[in-house]
Amino acid sequence: MGALVGELIDKEDGFERVATLSSADVGELDEGLAPADLVIDFSAPEALAHVAAYVRRTGAALVSGTTGLDAAQMGEVRALGEVARVVHASNFSLGVAVLRRLVAEAARALSGFDVEIVETHHNQKVDAPSGTAKALLDAVDPQGLDAVAYGREGVVGPRPAHEVGMHSLRGGTVAGTHTVCFFGTDEEVEFTHRATSRTIFAAGAVAAARALLAREAGLYTFEDLMLD
């Protein structure tokens, strides 16, 4: 993702890439790296402390697409929004942004339906479920009231009400497929988004970066920047 974003940035008018760091050398941010207007971070959770310190030191805007952040790290991202322009998203696809809106609306209208979420990614993905699947779960159940069944095995008995099934598939080179199923009596509604290339996520991150630079300090979602 970092390489794809860099390639697109180099082609964009109004942007100049001043540094490229991998997760292994992100500590250079602590060593007086010159201030930049913007940081785009698709690295690893352990890099967040270095990125956050740089943003606080320089006031740079931050586009964060790093997934797998724990509760404390998400708290740090929210805190950065108090002093800088920040957007964090698990998925920078415009289609997924629309999918979340549709799923949220369906969940409100189909409140009595059973819900299952299935996500599929390439065999090198290290976290499960995906950040996008978690975002879709939040769209279905924003209050976090429902139990989540991460796959099922054995004699599990009848499906409880107020349970959301979450299933992660891994294989091949799949860029990302997410499906949310609503099962009612004698009817089903299904929403699916398929990504055939990671380029869409990089393009979305660059578009979000341009939109973010026009905003005031604050924490934004990708939907805030691209759909509102």
From TrEMBL:
Q: How does it assemble?
A: Homotetramer.
A single Gene Ontology biological process assigned to it is: lysine biosynthetic process via diaminopimelate
Q: Where does it mainly reside?
A: cytoplasm
Q: Which Gene3D superfamilies match?
A: Dihydrodipicolinate Reductase, domain 2, NAD(P)-binding Rossmann-like Domain
Q: Where does NAD(+) bind?
A: 65-67, 89-92
Instruction: Give a short account of what the protein does.
Output: Catalyzes the conversion of 4-hydroxy-tetrahydrodipicolinate (HTPA) to tetrahydrodipicolinate.
Domain Dihydrodipicolinate reductase C-terminal per the UniProt entry, residue ranges: 95-226
Tell me its EC number(s), please: 1.17.1.8
List the protein's name: 4-hydroxy-tetrahydrodipicolinate reductase
Instruction: Report the SUPFAM superfamilies cross-referenced here.
Output: Glyceraldehyde-3-phosphate dehydrogenase-like, C-terminal domain, NAD(P)-binding Rossmann-fold domains
Under the heading PANTHER family, the entry gives: 4-HYDROXY-TETRAHYDRODIPICOLINATE REDUCTASE 1, CHLOROPLASTIC-RELATED, DIHYDRODIPICOLINATE REDUCTASE
- Could you name the active-site residues? 121, 125
* Domain Dihydrodipicolinate reductase N-terminal residue range list: 26-92
Cite the binding residues for (S)-2,3,4,5-tetrahydrodipicolinate.
122, 131-132
Q: Which HAMAP family match?
A: DapB
| Family to which this protein belongs | Belongs to the DapB family.
Q: In which pathway does it act?
A: Amino-acid biosynthesis; L-lysine biosynthesis via DAP pathway; (S)-tetrahydrodipicolinate from L-aspartate: step 4/4
GO molecular-function terms, A-Z: 4-hydroxy-tetrahydrodipicolinate reductase; NAD binding; NADP binding; oxidoreductase activity, acting on CH or CH2 groups, NAD or NADP as acceptor
Q: What is the lineage of its organism?
A: Bacteria, Bacillati, Actinomycetota, Coriobacteriia, Coriobacteriales
| Subcellular location(s) per record | Cytoplasm
Catalysed reaction equations from the record:
(S)-2,3,4,5-tetrahydrodipicolinate + NAD(+) + H2O = (2S,4S)-4-hydroxy-2,3,4,5-tetrahydrodipicolinate + NADH + H(+); (S)-2,3,4,5-tetrahydrodipicolinate + NADP(+) + H2O = (2S,4S)-4-hydroxy-2,3,4,5-tetrahydrodipicolinate + NADPH + H(+)
Q: Which InterPro entries match?
A: DapB_C (IPR022663), DapB_N (IPR000846), DapB_N_CS (IPR022664), DHDPR_bac (IPR023940), NAD(P)-bd_dom_sf (IPR036291)
